[in-house]
């Protein structure tokens, strides 16, 4: 609540106070805001609920903002400095070391996007958005893939056998 809702309110207030002439503001959203209506269990998740609340707060704020507001939905961005336990880093290391990679069901969904591609998408959305209007962009392919599909593709690319990946 402090970060996602109160923090968003503070950020939006500061943006409005400091806005320059013809400002463009990019506000990131996660895929949870779209998925909360399709996946009922998300409504019971406090993290997802606070993401939805902060997005609604930003939508209301944008109605009175005098500049362009660009909402960009960013899915799972990854890059070379990811934490070693992130899904892709963990799977790649285990495959490289020829050790088993152990996962839960593998049903978690994501639209896996390399960080530089995410930045290119964000800059493109900012450039293409008309001044003074609200616009919505999907930064990514828009296709959700399960962790299982992602890891199995990584396994295929690496040429490692099927015994190295374990889903419970």
Summary keywords:
3-stranded parallel β-sheet; two-stranded parallel sheet; 44% helix
Give a brief outline of the structure.
With 168 residues, this protein is an alpha/beta fold. It has helices at 2-18, 32-35, 46-62, 87-96, 115-128, 147-158; strands spanning 24-30, 68-74, 76-78, 101-103, 109-110, 112-114, 134-139, 145-146, 165-167.
How would you explain this protein's 3D organization?
- By secondary structure, the chain is α/β, with parallel strands linked by helices.
- The chain has helices at residues 2-18, 32-35, 46-62, 87-96, 115-128, 147-158, and strands at 24-30, 68-74, 76-78, 101-103, 109-110, 112-114, 134-139, 145-146, 165-167.
- A 3-stranded parallel beta sheet has the order 1-2-7, sandwiched between helices.
- Helix 1 packs parallel to helix 3 and helix 4 (87-96) packs parallel to helix 6.
- The longest helix has 17 residues, at 2-18.
- 17% of the residues are buried.
- The mean pLDDT is 88.
